[in-house]
């Protein structure tokens, strides 16, 4: 009885939250491709991409690079030294530059910028390293 639900919206979630057939088919195709790929080959590819990124981020001013190779998904963590741009500020700047680079901000309060390989293609680790290097060098010269 809608009369008893005072304060709640009186309509459904509407068109803005509906999923089109293109999105549903795209999700199914992505899942099929993911499941068809050998897990060991995927992990090896991901590790290679993260090793390339870690190599590209070495010797950055005010930062330490760590290759985190444990578990299924290897990652790269960029730990920023106090006194320089904060992790969240770096992530914001990376997201505004063309092409944008995004990192998950869950560890930003600890000064850490994490990078994961799931969506990376060949050649992109070098692009990410160039973007990070450019932002940090710009911050250092300011």
Structure description:
The protein has 142 residues and is α+β, with helices and mostly antiparallel strands. It is built from four helices and three strands, in the order H-H-E-E-H-E-H.
Beta-strand percent range: 5-15%
Mean pLDDT equals 88
Radius of gyration: 20 Å
Order of helices and strands: HHEEHEH
Distance between the termini: 62 Å
Largest sheet, spatial ordering of strands: 1-2-3
Treating each run of at least 4 consecutive H or I residues as one helix, how many helices? Answer: 4
- The count of strands amounts to 3
Helix proportion:
40-55%
Shape: globular
Q: What class, by secondary structure content?
A: alpha+beta
Major β-sheet annotation:
3 strands, antiparallel
**Poorly predicted sequence stretches spanning 5 or more consecutive residues:** none
Write the layout of secondary structure elements.
Blueprint: H1 21-36, H2 39-57, E1 63-68, E2 75-80, H3 87-96, E3 112-115, H4 124-141
Antiparallel strand pairs: 1-2, 2-3
In short:
The protein is about 45% helix and about 10% strand. It is an alpha+beta fold and about 140 residues long.
What are the defining features of this structure?
142 residues; alpha+beta; three-stranded antiparallel β-sheet; 3 strands
